[in-house]
Amino acid sequence: SAETSSSVVFENIQKCSPSCLRLLLENISGLTVDDDFTVEVIPEINVAVATFIKSIDTKEFVKKCLQNKRVREFKMTARLLELTQTIRAENLPDNICTDYITVYFESARNGGGPVSDVQLFPEENSAIITFCNHRGNT
To answer: Is 125 left (phi over 0), alpha (psi -120 to 50) or beta?
Structure first.
């Protein structure tokens, strides 16, 4: 695909607090967290994902991150998040049905797109949603 992901993965973030990481990414990008991008920290695996709401050249942003003195000092790595057609939804309400999940994730208002499959896991209150293409998984 000629399309580029709007999300960047940062690995080895344990030496950089979430608030420090947000500030660092604002400094590198010149953008504002929450208005122009979001940051999701996954401490269990020492990873954070920055997703850009504002359209930017994420390949160029990754290059700037890898050249940044502070990023190197923290020994973090940055890479584009792979585009995928499948996502996992968690913390779903009890007794939710696959039809509701399908309609919800097909809603353009919710960032969705055409859904090709939903696998529901009621015991985990989760589901795997597969889109017809990667554009629906935002």
So the answer is: left
Q: In this model, does residue 136 exceed pLDDT 60?
A: no
CATH architecture of 7-80: 2-Layer Sandwich (3.30)
Q: 57 vs 15, 19, 128, CA distance in Å?
A: 27, 23, 29
Task: Report pLDDT digits (tens) over 28-55.
Answer: 999 999 999 999 999 889 999 999 999 9
Sequence-distant (6+) residues with CB within 8 A of 43 are none
* pTM score: 0.69
Nearest to 50, CA basis, from 84, 108, 11: 11
The architecture of the domain spanning 86-131 is 2-Layer Sandwich (3.30)
- Torsion on CA atoms 99, 108, 92, 81, rounded to nearest 10: 120
